[in-house]
Amino acid sequence: MTTPPPEPWARRAAHLAVLSVLPSGLWRTALAFGVPLGYDERTLHDKFGLPGAGATAFLLSLTALIELLAFLTLGLVRPWGERVPRWIPVLGGRAVNPRLVVAAAGTGAVLLTLVLTVTAGTQVALQVGDGALRGGWLWLLFACYAPLAAWGPLLAAVTVSYHRRHRPVRRLSVPEPTLYRV
C-alpha cells in the first residue's frame, strides 16, 4: 500500500515551522558573538556572561539544537519521514513506524506550544520590565522571538496531516450476497 503525498498546505506549514525558529536563532547567534543588540557592554557581560566561552558555547549549542529539531518537522512531509535514509548506519533503509513518529511529533507539538508561548512572552516581558532594551531594539527582540510561538501549532498541524496519511484504511465489510431458494 502506498502512502498518499502530503497536502500542499502541510508542506508549506512544515517549511514555516522550520523558518519560525530562524529569527530567534539569529538573535542568539549575534549575542553569542558579542553583538550588543541594544544592550550596553556591562549588561551584556554581567547579565549574560557574553562574550564568554561558556555562554557563547551554550547559546550556539542551543541554537543548533533548536534548528535541528525544527528541521525534523520536514520529515513529516518528506520521504525520509517514512523510510530512514540509506546513508544512516544500522537503521538505513528501514521503514519508520508512523505511530512512533506521530507520538513523538504530537508530544513535541504540545510541549512546544506550552513552553514557547510562555517563554517567548516571558523573555520579552523581562526585557521590558528591567529596561535593558528600549525602542527599536525591544521591537526587534519581539520580532525575533514572536515567531517561535507558531512552531508548536505548525508542528501539530503537520503531525495531524502525517497521521491522516499513514493511518490504516478501514474497509467496510459487506456481506456476501446469498441466494435464497424458494
Overview in brief:
It is built from seven helices and no strands. The chain has helices at 8-20, 22-32, 41-48, 53-71, 98-130, 135-145, 148-166. Keywords: Membrane, Transmembrane, Transmembrane helix.
Topology:
Layout (H helix, E strand, L loop, with lengths): L7 H13 L1 H11 L8 H8 L4 H19 L26 H33 L4 H11 L2 H19 L16
Helix pairs in contact: 1-7, 2-4, 2-6, 5-6, 5-7
Explain this structure to me?
Keywords: Membrane, Transmembrane, Transmembrane helix. The protein is an all-alpha fold. Helix 2 runs antiparallel to helix 4, helix 5 packs antiparallel against helix 6 and helix 5 packs antiparallel against helix 7. The mean pLDDT is 85. The chain has 7 helices and no strands. It has one domain. The longest helix has 33 residues. 63% of the residues lie in helices and 0% in strands.
Figure out the total of helices.
7
Q: Uncertain segments of ≥5 residues (pLDDT<50)? A: none
- Assembly category: single chain
The assigned structural class equals: mainly alpha
Radius of gyration: 23 Å
Overall average residue pLDDT: 85
The tally of beta strands, per DSSP, is 0
Helix content: 55-70%
Keywords: Membrane, Transmembrane, Transmembrane helix
